Here is the input.
Amino acid sequence: MIKVENIVKRYGRVTASNHLNCHFERGKVTVILGGSGSGKSTLLRQLTGLEKPDSGAVYFDGVDLTTLNKTKLYEARKKMGMLFQGSALFNYLNIFENIAFPLREHTQIADNIIKTIVTMKLEMVGLRGTEDLMPSQLSGGMMKRVGLARAMVMDPKVIFYDEPTSGLDPISTGVIGKLIMDLNKTLNITSIVVSHDIESCFKIADNIIILFYGDIIAMGTSEEIRNSSDLRVKQFINGEPEGPIPFQRTDKNYLDEILFD
Ligand SMILES: Nc1ncnc2c1ncn2[C@@H]1O[C@H](COP(=O)(O)OP(=O)(O)OP(=O)(O)O)[C@@H](O)[C@H]1O
Ligand SMILES: [Mg+2]
Here is the structure.
C-alpha cells in the first residue's frame, strides 16, 4: 500500500530520516516504535504527504507523493484518515459536527446522508447517542474514539494513528487497540500506528518497525521482533535503562545543534 524508498530528511544538522526503506502492507497493522526523537512523527508526516523528504520517494498506492502538485496531493490525502495525538477535536463543535466536518469540507453530500454516515461511524466506535455532546464532556478515551470516527468518515484506505493510546488507562488502551484491529479486519483498512507503548503494540501489530535516531534498526513481524537477538531491539522492547541505546542522544552534531544554535 505504501512504499518508502531511501528517504532522507534533515533539520539543520539533525538527520531525522536517514535513508529509510520500508513498506506498509495493505490490510495490515504496522506499528512504528522508537524512543523520543527517533523520527517517528517525521516519518509519519512524510507518509501522509504533509512534509516532503529532502530526497527519496514515498509511493502511496503506486503514486510517488513527493512528485505531486498541491491539487493532486490533496486528492491523494482524501484516501487517508488521521487520528492525531490528543484527538484534535474542535472544542466549539459538538460530536456530530466534529465527525461531519470532513464530509462538509470535502464533499457535496446531502444533510440526511451525512446524518446516516455520522451515526454509522459513531456506532462503530461504540458511541452512538453522543451526537449532541461537546468534546469537553467526554473522557480522554471517548475523545480518541470520536477522533477515530472522524478519521474514518471519508472511508479511507489507510488510517494513521499518532500515539493513539498515550495518556489512557489500561482498559481504554485495550478498547482502542481492539478497535484498531476490528476496523482493520472488517474494513480491510491499512493501519499505521506510531507508538511508545510496547505492550499494546505487540497485541495489535502484524508488523513492527523500530526507529533509532533516524535509522530503522529492526523491521519484521511481531513474532520476529519479539524474538530478535539484536541487543538494541532487546533493550528497547524490555525497557532497560542500560544497554547499547544511550538514555540521551550524545553524538557531537546533535549536541552542537541543541547547545549552540
Ligand atoms: N520541524 C522540525 N524542525 C526542527 N527539528 C525537527 C523538526 N521536527 C523534528 N525535528 C527533529 O528531528 C528529530 C526527530 O523528531 P520526531 O519528532 O520525528 O521524533 P519522534 O520519534 O516523533 O519523538 P517523540 O516520541 O518525542 O514524539 C528530533 O531530533 C527533532 O528535534
Ligand atoms: Mg513524535
About this structure: The pocket of magnesium ion (ligand 2) is lined by residues 40-41 (CB under 6 Å). The chain is about 40% helix and 25% strand.
